[in-house]
Amino acid sequence: MVRRVAIIGAGVGGLASLKCCLDEGLEPICFERSEDIGGLWRYTDSTDGGRVSVYRSIITNTSKEMSCFSDFPCPEDFPSFLPHHLLLEYFRMYARHFDLLRHIRFKTTVLSVRKRPDFDTSGQWDVVTETDGIQESHVFDAVMVCIGHYQKPNLPLVSFPGIETRFKGQYLHSQEYRDAEAFRGKRVLVVGIGNTGGDLSVELSRVAAKVFLSIRTNTWVFSRVSNHGFPTDMVNNTRFNHFLDWLLPPALTKWIKFRKFNSWFNHANYGLASTKSSNFKIIINEELPFCLLSGTIVLKPNVKEFTESSALFEDGTTEENIDVVLFATGYVFSFPFLEESVRSLFDDNRSLYKRVFPPQLEKPTLAIIGLVQLTGSVMVGAEMQARWVTGIFAGWNKLPPASKMMADVLKKKPPVQRNPSKRENLKLSFISYIDEIASCAGVKPSVLRLLLTDPRLALAIFFGPCTPYQYRLVGRGKWSGAREAILTQWQRTLKPLRTRVVDDSSDGSDGWHWMCLLALPAALVAGFLLSKYSRPSWSPWAGPQL
User: Fold this and answer.
1) Per-residue pLDDT tens over the stretch 111-142
2) Among 307, 331, 355, where does a domain finish?
3) Which of 219, 236, 503, 511 is buried deepest, with most CB atoms within 10 A?
4) Do both 201 and 138 map to the same domain?
5) How far apart are CA 274 and CA 21, in angstroms?
């Protein structure tokens, strides 16, 4: 039976894993190479040491209610979208509340994780760490790798002829970016339009002489704020919308999807995206459309090559006097401490069973936490993975045989996409994936059962946002405060906004309750269909990447 568990990394995945291990009576030790918790969300001015951290101005793309730990809501006075210092403070509150810090060894680097000679029978691991130059060997019954996928900057210089040999200006990866001051008065080319590329382009446009943004794929831009002023992810990521996507024909779903994309502004007019494309990415950015409209950012196609001071693009145009090229080209995951025989078992997260377990291992005592791309908060996904994994380590839950796990992996793993612009298609539906892991852990709520026992809660779950508290209503780890947290989630969302009282006879909640009451028959039918015809392998688009 697994007792001692090594946890690598004290970011959000590591903290959740620590708490889940303690809940299951396991003995965890978390190794963190830096001096504090928070992972990439702990901002530092320095870029030395290769540690990846967020830039100074970053604000979360997912709202606090959709991103928090499932049994620890964010403080009600925190804004819905958090700057990095408030998110880090939330992590500290969580760690203090559940007494996690005493289980973390800071300034300790994991050098190697190797199978023990008797791994076939024991499933144990030899773990070598280093603290202040002193190495130490440990034996653990299981290992949870919680370093995420923001580890090694992806800098594909070979794809940009001339950048290393001819270009005389400066080039850098977004990992090195901290704030815009160093770019004041310069002509800057940003390559890549993920969330980071969009954010940095907007920020640089306020101080740079000119900003050019090079993209090579269709990109749809969403705002964090919905039509009625609520957080977009709370409005979009609902079980009702999820059910409609499952129910409607794919062609109609696609038409509705593109109508939704263009409801804010016509993306084709801005050169961003066409409704005819099946490959696309989604970013969150409120200011980018205005910057394009005002000319402070100029959109360009993919770069063909660089000269000493110019960038030549695939459409034949050239931009002269480029001072800085900023590559916002993402990251690749890297686990150099794992022995080669283990690393070779998975080339990406699709080679892992449920994106967590290497299915070929003789014993299921290694879990990769947080290496998943979702259309919602990865933080919620990491916690759910940790709950499932620690149940298996504790012995009360089981994995299927290796042959079934391999069959599941092969069934869900599409052909490898060589074009990085198609990586967006590898993202998983937030609700589909969390529900899948929750079912494995025995903590998925039943809307149909709740309709019979607690109709008010059932309606809030089905029509309201799919917040993490839903997964604390039943099963192991059930939290007595989950129901109240769900029924008060909108109050916590609005609380920070109501610093000035405005006389209004209704805040809209009465109308929402009437809508839910009228929708009860539809919910009953939907609950029946969900229970009778649910398709576990289904994974449609379920809202924007946040």
Assistant:
1) 999 999 999 999 999 999 999 999 999 999 99
2) 331
3) 219
4) no
5) 47
